[in-house]
Amino acid sequence: MVLLLAYGWLFVFFEGINNPNELVRVYAARALSERHTWAIGRRELGPGRFVDVGLEGEWGYVNDKALTCDRPEDHPPRCTGRLFAAKAPAASLIGAPVVAALRLFGPVKKTPAVFALRWVWVILPSIVFWILLRRWMLDSGVPEPAALVSTLTGSLGSLSLTYGQMFAGHQMAALALGAAFLCAFWRDLRPFWLGFFCALAVALEYPSAPAAAIVAFAALLKHRRGALWIALGALPWVAVLVQFHWSAFGAPWSTPYAHLENAAFVRDISPGLLGISAPSWERVYGSLFSPWLGLFFWAPWTALALLAPRWLRRFDLVPFAVIVYYLLFQITHALWRSGWTVGPRYITPVAPFAAMAVALAVREAPRLLPVLRGLGASGIVATGLASAVCQGFPLEVVNPLREVVGPLLAHGYVPRNPLQLLGVPGLWSAAPYFAALAVAAALILSRSGLALAIAALVVAAQWAAPPGNDRGAVRFLAAQWQPDPPPGARPFTPR
User: What is the pLDDT of residue 263?
Assistant: First the structure.
């Protein structure tokens, strides 16, 4: 019930923003359902300028698109041609049947489509996954208190909570990789499903490929069998990738990244090889420690996962290896800043694998448990409050807690939820969500004085981090609210 309320009570969605990370996948799912094509529209030459027609004409402009020019000698963005989601295809493909089901009730509207897709493919699978992961922890010899703390911390005090409420590839890839791990290392090897979920992770998010390879290779190394069945399991999603690339971009190996229609995105990923280049202190600090993005700021407990090699050996280190890959990817990728985000969203799969690593570490070193309790509770406070108002902070925000989260909650701004629809005003309508977080934090702290002290110190440090001087972000987000203002909220005064 705690996970259900935390993941499902609030509908954090602002139609006016048209979040491209989520919406471009929804557009593609609708195109597959209604028009039986990957293309979401076309770019045509209008009077003096190019005009995008198709689903954008009905649902509004969306970013993160790829463009294949009608003439081979032309190059995006200045050409006519077909428009596609510049994303891996699996999310849109599995979303198409949901959109088709919605059509039984009339024309498909954007907001109900997002709501349904989130529940079917993200919220409910996330809840099921975390329940299964706790069962794996117990079967792996992790004491029950440590398994409970690791599960609640990973599910509610990390990127998993924010992106477990969004129809985007981050959380779905995390779930697929987590499922692959369970198929490989929980009880007996299930090679077909291991291959299926590894390939699905890549078909959801291309950067999942090295992580999937780590899990599959470790499984083969441990079990010494199953290679053929792993390949057969991977085949359906490999076929989807090949068909998408070939039909949209002309070759099985041609991805959307080679056809981006946004010139700014092309410039952003141009440094290095495929956007990968040497890390810098700016990337390391920003990705791991900064208030505006840092993994250890929003989920400080994940730092404990980096200590796992001190106690773990052999195949218990597989989660650690996945974490290391994602951290290296984050600090070497040109898009490390991640756009509008809560935490470094590209490495959302770190959450379940960090939960595995810390659970196994506590199994070997029980003295770590109070530290995990304190850091986990502070993660729930930071990520839980942020996820209650937003799924991505604008780039100009320095400390989102002080500049956006605090002011919005203080003014009574909470997203749509069942009690708000019944007219319950302000924060009272979000009481079940906050109660779920409070119960989780109380279960984690478990009346441990040391854990409580650690949590208090970390929360104080998070809120003490200096804010920026610009307050435009909170007013912009408040202006996107639906309804505007929400019942019982105190509107922000104009500048």
Answer: 82
DSSP 68-118: EESSTT--TTSS-EEEEESS-SHHHHHHHHHHHHHHTTSSPPHHHHHHHHH
The three-state secondary structure class of 45 is strand
User: 276 pairs with which residues across the strands?
Assistant: 273, 333
- Global pTM? 0.95
The total of other beta-carbon atoms located within 10 Å of residue 332's CB is 17
Interatomic CA distance for residues 121 and 11, integer angstroms: 15
CB 465 within 8 A of CB 402: yes
CB 216 within 8 A of CB 195: yes
Instruction: For residue 447, give every residue at least 6 positions away whose Cβ sits within 8 Å of its Cβ, in sequence order, or none.
Output: none
421-463 pLDDT tens trace: 999 998 999 999 999 999 999 999 998 999 999 999 999 999 9
How much is the pLDDT for 56?
86
Please write the tens of the pLDDT for every residue from 284-327: 999 999 999 999 999 999 999 999 999 988 999 999 999 999 99
User: What's the Cα-to-Cα distance from 212 to each of 83, 175, 203, rounded to whole Å?
Assistant: 29, 12, 11
Query: Residue 348 half-sphere exposure, CB side, CA atoms within 13 Å?
Result: 30
The residue to which tokens 């929003």 are assigned? 298
**Interior angle at CA 267, CA 264 and CA 273, nearest 5:** 145
Using alpha carbons, list the distances in angstroms from residue 37 to 23, 34, 77, 93. Answer: 17, 8, 21, 10
Give me the pLDDT at residue 57, please. Answer: 83
Instruction: Reduce the DSSP state of residue 341 to 3 states and report it.
Output: strand
Measured between alpha carbons, how far is 317 from 313 in angstroms, rounded to an integer?
6
Distance of CA 446 to the CA centre of its chain: 29
Per-residue pLDDT at 140: 96
Nearest-angstrom CA–CA distance, 146 and 141? 10
R_g over Cα of the chain: 22
What are the b/e assignments for 168-185, b being 16+ CB within 10 Å? bbbbbbbbbbbbbbbbbb
Helices (runs of H) and strands (runs of E) counted in the chain: 24, 4
The rounded percent of the chain whose pLDDT value lies above 70 is: 100
Q: In what order do the strands lie in the sheet with 41-45?
A: 50-54, 41-45, 81-85, 65-69
Among positive and negative, which fits the CA dihedral 385, 389, 394, 397? Answer: negative
Cα gap 82→313, rounded to integer Å? 51
**Burial label, 45 (beta-carbon count in 10 A; 0-12, 13-18, 19+):** exposed
- Reported as a pLDDT band with limits 50, 70 and 90, residue 271 is confident
DSSP codes of every residue in 374-443:
HHHHHHHHHHHHHHTT-S-B-TT-S-HIIIIIHHHHHTT---B-HHHHTT--GGGGGHHHHHHHHHHHHH
